[in-house]
Amino acid sequence: MMIKGHDMTTKPLIFTDIDGTLLDHFDYSFSDAIEVIEALNERHIPIIANTSKTFAEMEKLQQTFGFNSPFISENGAVIYIPIGYFSQQPQDTLTQGYYWVKEFCQPRQYWLELLHQHAQAFNDNFIGFSSLSVEELCEVTDLSPDNATLALVRHYGEPLLWQGDDVSKQAFIELMASVGAHTLQGGRFLHVGGDTDKGKAMQWLAAVYAEQYGTLVSTIALGDSGNDNAMLEAADIAIQIKSPVHPFPLLTTKNPSIKSSEYGPKGWAECIKQTLLSSSETSSVLAELAVSQPSFGGA
């Protein structure tokens, strides 16, 4: 899909990972991206968080970022849409509090019971979120106590801190698959849950935007780790953010892809400027890369 900042016939949608992408991996700052966020808000370009973070974490972060858009939580397991954000409530959504909610898998308790029933042989290889105290999570992640408390309140999956070797990890992943669980390696944790991912959730929400606004939409996705690949590979433009702790994951996509030269939020700002806030010269380069057919069309 052609991405042009001045092309008002196609609505760009930005789907972004949070940890290590919009937030710095070490100090969780996003100060290097504030100017670009403000520029996108002025242009009414939605910024949609697509993250492993919980509802409680994201509700707080949405206010911190100044986002009023929907957000995707727990690695594509659920989408929260502020009531009234669209003129009509999207189909197949529930109303919970101040949100229309689209669920994609079973609740967390289902996966905890599955781990208890089938993963006893691997108990010495991992520590589950459900067994961590706030203090222990702070030590692992450098989160503040308040933010760690929010991170522990999960609804749709169980992150594991893997402490075993790679051979045991692969055996565990195969076992989980055999009993119907999906595993996904994030920046720090191995996530166990349903067959959901950030890409499927992004595509569902992008289709809702197209239907609600009656226009073509283009998806620009930004992420830094392997659990972002499904989102990046499904996007019209994939932007990989350089990580200070691991190499760029291998990406398989026929659509345009970009790698940032800077880390975290600085790389986020760098690449958004190139794709949406750039000179006409840069836009023309992207246009040459872009595919000709949109992924989602309006009614």
From TrEMBL:
Pfam families: Hydrolase_3 (PF08282). The keyword Magnesium applies. GO terms for cellular component: cytosol. InterPro entries: HAD-like_sf (IPR036412), HAD-SF-IIB-MPGP (IPR006381), HAD-SF_hydro_IIB (IPR006379), HAD_sf (IPR023214). Gene3D superfamilies: HAD superfamily/HAD-like, Putative mannosyl-3-phosphoglycerate phosphatase, domain 2. One of its GO terms (molecular function) is magnesium ion binding. Keywords: Hydrolase, Magnesium, Metal-binding. It comes from the Bacteria. GO terms for biological process: mannosylglycerate biosynthetic process. NCBIfam families: HAD-SF-IIB, HAD-SF-IIB-MPGP, PRK00192.1-5. This is HAD-IIB family hydrolase.
